[in-house]
Amino acid sequence: MFKKLTQEVHFFQSQQLGMRMLLLTNLIYGLVMPIIELFIGAYIMRNSSDISLVVVFQLAMYTGIPTTFLINGYLLNRIPISKVYSLGMLLSGVSMSAMMMLDQLDTAGVFFAGLIMGLSYGFFWANRDFLALNTTKDSNRNYYYGVETFFYTINGILVPLAAGAFIAATQKNGWFAGNVNMAYYILTACVFLLTFLASVLVHQGQFQNPKKSPFLYFKFHGLWNKMLRLAALKGVAQGYIVTAPVMLIMHLVGEEGELGFIQSAAALVSAILLYVLGRTSLPAHRLLIFTFGLSLFVLGAVFNAGLYSATGVILFVLCLIFARPLLDIAYFPIQLKVIDFVAEKENRNEFSYIFNHELGLYVGRLFGCGLFILLARYVSDYVALRYALLVIAVVHFMSLFMAKSILKDKAWAENSVEKQTTI
Q1: Three-class SS of residue 24?
Q2: Higher pLDDT, 261 or 23
Q3: Fewest Cβ atoms closer than 10 Å to its Cβ: which of 96, 166, 326, 399?
Q4: What are the pLDDT digits (tens) for 390-414?
């Protein structure tokens, strides 16, 4: 066992410096993301009777992300990418602080806090995607995303369990004079500390900015247009995947302590399996992995809609814990491989595709979040939580056919290039 672990460490160390530094930075920032994703929603629900405010926060965040991608493109022509990447991570704590300083949670205040979080995520994901593209090759991207997903999943075990237990213990034992929100303030302080550490580490990677060139385009290769449609289908699900577990558990299972426990229950097995999958799988396996992820998401939604109980929620969360990383391991390498091909084909800056991809995601997120808000406010919370999730899952499953089409077209295009080169 020790020998095997040593081999894995040596294999990690054999990767180039930029890739290793990026993974370690994301490991530290990964400790922050469960707090943002899980307990922001729980905080809103605890301090407001309007369940749709959780999705208002999400929609505002998703609005801020593509806006920041645009700003990021211009900043990279003047500022080192490590500094912009650091700014994104540090803004996470600013957003949490802004919301917790509100005397009363309303649509405008929550939207503003979500917009700041969108700025944070925008700077983080725009630069993270570009750095992942430039520090990896197609042959080791399954490994890269396997390791990254392993880190995120392990963090998904430790952080929800510890933070959920801390919040529950604060309420049970009457710490901080019975002010449960004080626990959230302490978690926010932890977010600031972790993002500062990640910001320090990212400067050790010696990362290079993209070349200075235009990145705003409106016409693209046909293969990229298919990738945008796949991105929109992914975005539809993202509007729900982040907040649905929080809302369902708070409604049907219990408080934040149970929330942390359920999220951690299956994550350890998931982390080990996903690391092995990332380490051993090949590019040819991506479509199969993608199919399993989509199927698990639909299965979880069926459990939730059919049972709509604590048992149904637990089964949904278990399916989601495995589905999300499976989808990521398959989706991101496909995206980067397509960017490799079309950027060379059209002789454009890779960041132009990263920015354009975010717009595709945003279209899908608008649909997913908008559907929930409309149902929650004008029909009922019950319908929004029970049935809309199943609709979203079925729509998201259509991604499988688009992914098949992309991989088929990509293979054909690459074969054509090879033939022309041979001739």
Answers
A1: helix
A2: 23
A3: 166
A4: 888 898 999 999 999 998 875 555 5
Write the pLDDT tens digit of every residue in 157-211: 777 777 777 877 887 787 877 677 788 788 878 888 888 888 888 887 778 888 7
Q: What letter would DSSP give residue 177?
A: G
**What mean pLDDT is reported for the chain?**
80
Indicate whether this model's pTM tops 0.70: yes
- 98 lies in some domain: yes
Asked whether residue 421 is domain-assigned, the answer is no
- DSSP H helices in 101-140: 107-135
Where does residue 347 fall: left (phi above 0), alpha (psi -120 to 50 degrees), or beta otherwise? left
Q: Select the highest-mean-pLDDT range: 133-147, 243-257, 271-285.
A: 133-147
Q: The domain spanning residue 158 has which CATH number?
A: 1.20.1250.20
User: Helices (DSSP H) in 136-221: which residue ranges?
Assistant: 141-173, 181-202
The secondary structure of the chain in percent helix, strand, coil, rounded to multiples of 5, reads 85, 0, 15
- Domain span at residue 96 reads 17-205+217-416
Cα–Cα distance, 337 to 269 (Å, whole number): 29
Contacts of 185 (CB under 8 A, 6+ apart): 100
Q: How far apart are CA 372 and CA 369, in angstroms?
A: 5
Q: Does 248 have pLDDT greater than 70?
A: yes
Q: Is residue 5 part of a domain?
A: no
Distance CA 373, CA 52 (A): 6
Tokens of 302: 């069926």
The answer to whether residue 329 scores a pLDDT higher than 60 is yes
Q: Evaluate whether 330 touches 402 at the Cβ level (below 8 Å).
A: no
Measured CA to CA, the distance from residue 413 to residue 416 in angstroms comes to 5
Question: Could you tell me what percent of the chain has a pLDDT over 90?
Answer: 10
Alpha carbons 28 and 124: distance in angstroms, whole number: 13
pLDDT of residue 309: 83
Helix (H, G, I), strand (E, B) or coil at 110: helix
Phi, psi of 316 (to 5 degrees): -60, -45
349 burial class (0-12, 13-18, 19+ CB within 10 angstroms)? buried
Q: In a 10 Å sphere around its CB, with 0-12 CB exposed, 13-18 middle and 19+ buried, how is residue 161 labelled?
A: buried
Whether residue 267 contacts residue 150, with contact meaning beta carbons closer than 8 Å, is answered with no
3-state secondary structure of 137: coil
Q: What is the number of structural domains in the chain?
A: 1
CA angle 346, 351, 353 (to 5 degrees): 55
- Can you tell me the mean pLDDT for 335-362? 88
Asked if 402 and 230 touch (Cβ cutoff 8 Å), the reply is yes
